[in-house]
Design brief:
The protein is mainly beta. It contains two helices and 14 strands. β5 and β6 form a beta hairpin.
Length: 255
């Protein structure tokens, strides 16, 4: 009996019980949405999502959210109640993965988009504790991007610098939602301007006004006396809702 006890003690010392924890696949759903608007869906190229261990930086999952922009009524028109599944409706875009977690872990969620408009790309992140086996579905982890997508559509070239040149631009929310006077996204809330810069210095600014079609704005700016190599950009500004956007800069070979 004594020998048996000694043998068991030796085995316990040589082969201690395993302390490794089993991995538990934990489903996590993530959504990237436009501030004061809807989900960033396929029409805007979706959004890139990265999930990583906040302590080590190890990337645990990465992908692109796919789907639509969600329900306008649930997200914008109707009052939102606590816990309402406002994002989990009407095929709203999301990214979902199963994370192999072994213990409660603080994760960092990063979202960037809209991917179809690189010049308008914004990025945001948040950290939160995720517990193995506790799936996060429904609305999921929601990441919000501020801004506008601004596209300078005209002029393509400058015909005569002695005359004012017409400027046309399209301004949309990050989800692609359009602006209209008195609409859900009121065009009158955004100040839209055309600016000419040279070597980082502002030369001229002119106001663009709503052009009668959703998200379209137009106005005029003069290139008279403007040095070659100057850049034309259009900006949309709504400081009350912390949304700003800028177009790709345009330069012209002659004017």
């Amino acid at each position: 009996m004594r020998n048996l006890v000694l043998s068991l003690l030796v085995l316990a010392i040589i082969c201690p019980p395993s302390t490794s924890l089993a991995q538990v696949a934990t489903r996590v759903r993530v959504r990237v949405v436009a501030h004061d608007a809807k989900v960033i869906g396929d029409g805007m190229g979706g959004a890139r999502i990265t999930i990583r261990d906040a302590a080590t930086g190890e990337v645990l999952a990465q992908g692109t959210q796919q789907g639509g922009t969600g329900s306008t009524d649930a997200l914008v028109s109707n009052p939102i109640g606590r816990g309402d599944p406002v994002y989990d409706l009407d095929g709203a875009a999301f990214f979902e993965t199963a994370l192999p977690l072994t213990e409660p872990t603080v994760l960092e969620f990063l979202g960037e988009g809209p991917l179809a408009y690189e010049h308008a790309l914004q990025r945001t992140s948040r950290r939160m504790l995720v517990v193995p086996g506790q799936d996060i579905l429904g609305n999921g982890v929601v990441l919000e991007l501020n801004g506008f997508v601004v596209e300078l559509l005209a002029p393509v070239e400058i015909e005569d610098s002695s005359r004012a040149t017409r400027v046309t631009a399209r301004v949309r929310m990050m989800c692609g939602c359009t602006l209209e006077p008195g609409g859900l996204w009121d065009a009158s809330r955004a100040r839209v301007v055309a600016r000419l810069y040279h070597a980082g210095r502002l030369l001229k600014e002119e106001r663009l006004v709503y052009a009668g079609e959703p998200s379209m704005f137009e106005g005029e700016i003069s290139f008279a006396g403007v040095p070659r190599g100057s850049e034309l950009v259009v900006l949309a500004l709504d400081p009350t809702r912390a949304n700003f956007g800028i177009s790709k800069p345009a330069t012209y070979s002659r004017y």
